[in-house]
């Protein structure tokens, strides 16, 4: 009985049971995942069992599974069954990238939106990052900074190191979702940027060094310095966007 009560609370929190919203078969499968206590990687009931438990046709179940599969909520492994998916943000990234290149003539608003979200995430998590890294040493992050600075001096961009640095800052926090969001919006940013023909500022070295300033500030426990480094980090893309608008 306690399990049913807990499940009801969780389902209510998701909004699946909202009386103002038509419940679909895909919604009911998500409810079933919750009520059965399934986790990513767990096997779902068979198609026939889902039909029986939900009281719907096979075509409804198949369509619902296809929909949930595109969202990575379920993982269809042909010949093995359907499993609870890892629920990555890949679908979100693809949708946002498409949105960003769909109307490139709109004053680059989509790219500006993505940059603003990235900044908001960095500033919003800054106190937690500084608290988590204060008094520590992080040789892997330091090595990434050294690589970025060296590559910038050669006039080369450093997308892999940049992504690894930003996700690495958050790896010590007990919040996997924000790490996924930071990575997702970073991916959108770097995918949309070349497609919109934005001329990236030549001062790659400033961006590279700003990462080192962020790391140093976090390890020193200095939130204000961390904020200042974030601003310096985004200055080149801000100037590039301003030039393209002008």
Structure overview:
The structure is a single chain. By secondary structure, the chain is mainly α. It contains 12 helices and 2 strands; from the N terminus they run ααααββαααααααα. Strands 1-2 form a two-stranded antiparallel ribbon. Helix 2 crosses helix 4, helix 7 crosses helix 11 and helix 11 runs antiparallel to helix 12. It is elongated, with a radius of gyration of 22 Å. The N terminus is likely disordered.
> Low-confidence segments, ≥5 residues, pLDDT <50?
1-20
**Secondary structure tally, helices:** 12
Distance between the termini: 64 Å
Compute the gyration radius: what is it?
Answer: 22 Å
Give the strand tally. 2
Strand content: under 5%
Helix content: 55-70%
Q: Strand order within the widest sheet?
A: 1-2
Task: Give average pLDDT, whole number.
Answer: 81
Q: What class would the helix/strand composition place it in?
A: mainly alpha
Order of helices and strands: HHHHEEHHHHHHHH
Shape summary:
elongated
Q: Mind summarizing the main beta sheet?
A: 2 strands, antiparallel
Keyword list:
single chain, about 250 residues, mainly alpha, two-stranded antiparallel ribbon, 12 helices, 2 strands, about 70% helix, disordered N terminus
């Amino acid at each position: 009985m306690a399990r049913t009560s807990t499940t009801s609370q969780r389902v209510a929190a998701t909004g699946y049971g909202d009386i103002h919203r038509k419940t679909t078969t895909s919604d009911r499968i998500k409810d079933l995942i919750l009520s059965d206590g399934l986790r990513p990687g767990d096997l779902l009931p068979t198609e026939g069992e889902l039909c029986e438990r939900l009281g719907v046709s096979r075509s409804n179940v198949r369509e619902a599974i296809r929909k949930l599969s595109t969202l990575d909520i379920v993982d269809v492994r042909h010949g093995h069954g359907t499993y609870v998916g890892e629920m990555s943000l890949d679908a979100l990234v693809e949708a946002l990238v498409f949105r960003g290149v769909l109307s490139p003539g709109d004053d680059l608003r989509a790219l500006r939106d993505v940059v603003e979200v990235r900044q908001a995430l960095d500033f919003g998590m800054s106190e937690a990052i500084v608290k988590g890294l204060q008094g520590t040493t992080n040789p892997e992050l330091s090595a990434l900074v050294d690589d970025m600075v060296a590559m910038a001096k050669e006039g080369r961009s450093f997308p892999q190191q940049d992504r690894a640095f930003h996700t690495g800052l958050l790896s010590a926090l007990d919040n996997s979702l924000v790490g996924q969001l930071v990575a997702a919006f970073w991916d959108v940013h770097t995918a949309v940027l070349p497609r919109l023909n934005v001329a990236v500022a030549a001062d790659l070295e400033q961006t590279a060094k700003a990462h080192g300033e962020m790391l140093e500030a976090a390890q020193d426990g200095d939130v204000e310095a961390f904020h200042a480094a974030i601003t310096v980090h985004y200055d080149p893309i801000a100037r590039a966007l301003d030039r393209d608008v002008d």
